[in-house]
Write a structure and sequence with these properties.
The structure is a homotetramer of 485-residue chains.
Chain A: E1 2-3, E2 13-14, E3 16-22, H1 27-37, E4 45-51, E5 56-62, H2 72-77, E6 82-88, E7 103-107, E8 110-120, H3 123-132, H4 143-152, H5 158-168, E9 171-179, E10 182-187, E11 196-200, E12 203-207, H6 210-216, E13 219-223, E14 229-233, E15 236-240, H7 253-258, E16 264-265, E17 268-269, H8 270-284, E18 291-294, H9 300-310, E19 318-320, E20 327-328, H10 338-343, E21 344-346, H11 348-351, E22 355-360, H12 367-378, E23 383-388, E24 401-402, H13 410-413, H14 416-423, E25 427-430, H15 433-439, H16 455-458, H17 466-469, E26 482-484
Parallel strand pairs in A: 18-22, 22-23, 23-25
Antiparallel strand pairs in A: 1-20, 2-24, 3-6, 3-12, 4-5, 4-6, 7-8, 8-9, 9-10, 10-14, 11-12, 11-13, 14-15, 16-17, 19-21
GO molecular function, one term (chains A, B, C, D): magnesium ion binding
Function (chains A, B, C, D): Catalyzes the formation of phosphoribosylamine from phosphoribosylpyrophosphate (PRPP) and glutamine.
Cofactor (chains A, B, C, D): [4Fe-4S] cluster; Mg(2+)
Chain lengths: 485, 485, 485, 485
């Protein structure tokens, strides 16, 4: 079987996008549009829950937003002026519908729906304790832990129970919740995953990225701040700070790859940061060549920045197909590198006899870099110099990003020279960590108090990794023992 | 819209059938066959859960067993030698997949799957208390209460927790549960709903009716007794009596209509009881006529008994279609009684000019009796004398049978003469209560200690009806406030 | 794989039912109801074509009428007051949608839709000639030959072309066609397959059987006569006799099995004929026994007739399941005769220790008779005497009935005593041919000019069998060489 | 309803892509890959027919190649070493499966399958004559005319009949046909639509574009020449010239928009031609600005060429979403230009306060140009100067391209200044016709004998337009009168 998405296998992946609307006609339709704009943050499943003042309405589906949430029939049933939605990229084989968010529970206070971008790093430990007390889980999702903590909290009001629950979880979370009393949104104290606030007429909008505000025509107000809890109710918007203040450490990889280039993340234009990265890369590791070629589309802004800084022409040496399927049958042994060509094809007439600077955003396993380079060589490229728009990816992420285990990360296994040899390029260079911070407008990384979470590059994790340490958690808790077929 | 199943609307309905296999190759395939044989006990949904010694495997589907559980692909994934299954007839509009049994939960003791035939008559009251304590329900099913009671029980072993849970529920239940330690089966102390035990080679089989044993080639061992708890594990079969002894009161309607005529229920052949009912009816309310005609197929055995006792010929004056759909579009106003004819058509050549004794098992709303009689008249019947093979159905059932509210029960609204007038028959007679007991081999009903639950005829309910009395239960608890679309 | 329809495999099968409506509001809905009532004549596929005065609208689907033609959405699109429909039972593996009728073609005279019950016995020969002349076939159906003959006829008017086409075909056909000028219906000169005419308000109805008239509330006017061509147009109904007169020979098996018992075929009540058959059988081959048991439902009317004539009690010794699927997975080797039990189960309590007269309508392969008898013996029957309500089926049908090849017909391979031995019954008797004619009200079969087509019993075919004789037809013509997957 | 594909509505569209393989293991899998690479030439439906030496196997489906032709199950059934396939972009509402190619017919010579890129401009006239003679059409496709001409030709051999048929058709066709004797490929005498020949090991490959050869790893041999008929059989490849020689006039729009940039068409790299077009445009209509922004992706190569020639920076001022659905529900009135933003979003941080040269390949209706410009203005662009990489599109195409009628073509309704005003840009310029010819390496257009078909720009059609002239064709012939629902 051939995947037409070879690149997808060789990237880190954001696991989720969230979007919420408070107080708008056709709230569900707005959420569908917002989730469509956030589709790059999670492609496996999507869901929307609305509240019409009396009932909650939910639709969840495997697959993309388009195709599942674009029919009049579905949207009409999602009644109400308050709505939240979620795109999911699954980290495990378990992609059953019951893990698709929004998760919902009927609490003694009424319905409670939740969307979560991030990952609770002590979820297994908490789950084991909850099950011992008699809680019954519906899913294998770490997010469900939050609901059970709310349900079993000793506090009285829903808000107190919610804060009580959040104080017991560790890790990364940007949350949007729907209750009969209003919408709750919260970003973890480190602000690892993004969350922004916008306004559309009289409605409030919450979204993972500003691009989702643009698409629905909303105005960007501000980022939800790390550690901030926002309550939107008929009485308006309130902001609380229930956690002890901490130095924020937002995820640096949002700028490298996760976020869309037309988003503004933590005050920076993603496109301009990526161009600045390309310029840094041109300065750090210049090379004599005929043209700069991006791996489309993830390498394109950095390649434009590299070309402008170096004076080399920017050329589309690789053409990307817009028609992507999951897999094709391998027709026979005679065809090499077929998978890669389904998505990317060498622009042979442009490439032959040329010395190429090839720009990509990162190297994860390296398997597809290898194939791309081989494709360029077969198309007649004379030299291929690879430049990577981030430092080597050496560590797994535990905050809501799908990373292969360390043994699969090429940069965790070999040094740059060995990688160059493996990928079979004439030269290979990565951006330096300080170069990355410079592109973000910092002088350099502050090693004592890093400005960002860069654990995938440095191994410097900003929280405890309780589940990783807790050797006691029995296997049966890691997944429901029921396989629904 | 026309239903081709007009009869179905005018019968009481058993809500469930259960079937379990312990220790057989291809256990899931056996359960599929058993459920197929029990399809008459629930047609809206079905499910099977298996245990392979490590994992539980579940498949649930809306619709019939055939079509959902007959593919090699489905059965092959339901691995293991232990399996339980369930047919569901829904009482409410809420037929979402999450209510389809077996229900499953991951308890601290491991997986726990449950199939339930019956109805917990204090479920709402228990649910309210559990939610207040922090339990989160996945379904609107009364059965889920049992699981949460097990999960939150203060006892240590799973068996003790299970018994503790059952002691807190009221009502009717024939249960089969699957746990990593073995299979648990239990019948409530009154034995309202049936449950039988069989043997197939080295395996044990549990089923709602003996017909399901026949179909898989199993030998009938005995009925599970009222109040008996059976544990089947690698150590063999054990029988416990955890409840205080009570006088059993099995459901009398199983003999009238629910069970298949080829089953043996509480020691009696259903077919022979129904023939005896017909004979009683012929003696109690004889009439001069040309032939005895059953409403097929529910009235057929009683009509044969009536014909043999009376000496009148038994004739198929109404022909039933074997091809049944749910609904058809009404083509126009010119057609009367169309719905009824889709399923039953008068055998005009046989009927014209004849005096007919028409036999049906019961009258619920009376709407279709009315249409059938009109159809016979339009086909030329000279006289129609209706004879009903049970007493008037005057009361709702709270033990797992789908009954309309009392205001819809014809016999709760009018006396027999008024019913005769409404249905437009020349004469109408019901079987007497004592006649029904006689057909079952009793001298008469023992009014001080009735041998059966006959509440639908007499209003004499054998348990408290806590949820009916508890006016405090808030509406929001009766159904999840989330509508999954 | 187990079929739950073992019986279906051991019956001759009518291949089609047809139904037409001229001039009624909601014509498509009426056709859907009519086809539902004729579902027993063909279960594999169904189709409806309507004409709204301008356009033809068609829906075809694999499967039953219910489920495919009962939705408002489908019926609403089938606009117009004129409509025809067809149920199909396929004779070959080729059940692709393009063979599902009504077939449609755009002729120079406009659209032309056709429904056909029967079989053209020189279709292959005609097809070969048409293809040589440049005609391109869309299907492998013999019916399409008629359309191409109309399209290429040298005559000018559509009516003349239609008659020209029919004069060139041999075999059996009851046709209903839809054209912009009106509806055409025709029955072959022998009248092998049935076709009746009815009236509903101002509309005309055409149907394979009277039961379909009953279901839509139409009045039965008369049978379309053998060799009659009916034209229904805005000018009313006209009847033509375009063929040379021949002695009719309608199919005798319609009375034995194909037609529904509540239909009237060629002036006889099917139910009463079958009872008369049972009575003949009781006289021809009486036996001392305890009860008469039908194989349900095909043997039931004959069993009632046998019981009434013999004085033995009629009993439901075998119970038929109403829930039928196609196949189930065989769970293991320990279970014998499983397939048969899915559909029919012995009423053990009734059977044990009894001497049984078992009535079925016919024996085709004998495989399921064998299993039924074994099932009765395992349930404890002391003696089983089988009585068959027709003569031995020894010859294939070429007129629209699905018969196995002769080598599979049990009665073509052995005599009655050998069959008795094979089926393992205590005695076996078939109805005599004259007995069958007597049940139909004839004194006896007129061997010089038989009153019916009884070729399946006698081998006396009423037409030439051109395709059987024409050894020249190349294989490639028997089926399209394109397999559409 | 909002389409996420607003652009698609405002482009001319190639209607088809074709691909054939002769003599390779897994031929169907190769065709699936080739069609995937040609998906941009037709997105509504796809089909593959294979020949295994005995039978033809076909699968057709609405939708993309991926999703329909990537499963092992489908490909395994498409047996054989010879295969042809087709992508279809429908011009009318009629997209029923029976119009999906390959079309297939059983001729007297055996099976015949055909794939066609182009349009027969006298199809209606020929069809009317064929129907009058008795031919029955299965589809509304112009391509089916060719099959009936072959079927009814007076010549004897299949090859002669095929040539006879082609001599009677007018218009544009690149054909690949499958017969039991081998594969036939043919390009019309003008060579309007492209067709290329490649080699993969011992197999021959035919494809609409070279990119499809690249993807399967085949070597590009040469273009099939205008008027050339190629026969590939077990005896090898033969080339015939059955038509009178004509001056070729390949479609010039293939270079502007239809073909993929990584294809080589008529000897020119499409990417390099488009860059040359951009450079011509920069020379013809220079403007002072801050950056060059393409409408992605169709304007990108020309924008790179424009930027390189002008010295202005190339920037991604508009970001294209990779996740495309068909439609979304409009959530309310407050949101303007929503449709356009689902697919393209302004890169606000880059755009604000800037003077932009906006490059697109063509303007058809102008509706989406209007919206894009408005989107850029709302994002803060100071000036927008639109430059179009082709001359004004003023005429419909009758050779297999989906063009709106002339009244919908903006350039047919107004001059450039009026268009500038309508689209609301600061300046607007189109490429000159001679500029386009220069980018293709010609000195200028030869008006006496134009080197290309440029009728969409000039109205100079290279063939008769018989169907347009023939006022006699009755309406009923333009579409089958049967609507299959």
């Amino acid at each position: 079987m051939l995947t037409t998405d070879p690149w997808e296998d060789d990237h880190l992946h954001e696991e989720c996008g969230v979007f919420g609307v408070y107080g708008a006609d056709g709230a569900a339709a707005l959420v569908a549009l917002g989730l469509h704009a956030l589709q790059h943050r999670g492609q496996e499943a999507a869901g929307i829950t609305t509240f019409d003042g009396r009932d909650f309405h939910t639709h969840r589906a495997m697959g993309h937003v388009a195709g599942n949430f674009d029919s009049d029939e579905v949207i009409r049933k999602l009644k109400g002026e308050i709505a939240i939605g979620h795109n999911r990229y699954s980290t495990t084989g378990e992609t059953a519908l019951r893990n698709v968010q929004p998760l919902f529970a009927e609490l003694s206070s009424g319905g409670f729906a939740i969307c979560h971008n991030g990952n609770i790093s002590n979820a297994m430990t908490l789950r084991r304790d909850l099950v011992r007390r008699g809680s019954i889980f519906q899913s294998t999702s770490d997010t469900e832990v939050i609901i059970h903590l709310v349900a079993t909290s000793g506090y009285r009001t829903l808000l107190d129970r919610f804060i009580d629950a959040l104080k017991r979880v560790e890790g990364a979370y940007s949350l949007i919740c729907l209750t009969p009393e209003g919408m709750l949104a919260c970003r973890d104290p480190l602000g690892v995953r993004p969350l922004v606030l916008g306004r559309l007429g009289d409605s409030y909008i919450l979204a993972s990225e500003t691009v989702a505000l643009d698409v629905v025509g909303a105005t960007f107000l501000r980022a939800v701040e790390p550690g901030e809890l926002i309550i939107i109710s008929p009485r308006g918007l309130r902001s609380l700070r229930p956690f002890e203040a901490q130095r924020p450490r937002p995820c640096i990889f949002e700028h490298v790859y996760f976020s869309r280039p037309d988003s503004v993340v933590e005050g920076n234009s993603v496109y301009q940061v990526r161009k600045a990265i390309g310029a840094e890369l041109a300065r750090e590791s210049a090379i004599d060549a005929d043209m700069v070629v991006p791996v489309p589309d993830s390498g394109t802004p950095a390649a434009i920045g590299y070309a402008q800084e170096s004076g080399l022409p920017f050329e589309l040496g690789i053409i990307r197909s817009h028609y992507v399927g999951r897999t094709f049958i391998q027709p026979g042994d005679q065809i090499r590198n077929l998978g890669v060509k389904l998505k990317h094809n060498a622009n042979r007439a442009m490439i032959t006899g040329k010395r190429i600077v090839l720009i990509d955003d990162s190297i994860v396993r390296g398997t597809t870099s290898l194939k791309i380079v081989q494709m360029l060589r077969e198309a007649g490229a004379e030299e291929v110099h690879m430049r990577i728009a981030s430092p080597p990816t050496r560590h797994s992420c535990y905050y809501g990003v799908d990373t292969p285990e360390r043994s699969k990360l090429l940069a965790a296994q070999m040094n740059v020279e060995a990688m160059r040899d493996y990928i079979k390029v004439d030269s290979l260079a990565f951006l330096s960590t300080d170069g990355l911070y410079r592109a973000l407008g910092e002088a350099k990384r502050n090693d004592n108090a890093p400005q960002y979470c860069d654990a995938c590059f440095t191994g410097d994790y900003p929280t405890r990794l309780t589940d990783q340490e807790d050797v006691e958690i029995p296997d049966q808790l890691s997944l429901l023992a029921e396989r629904v077929i």
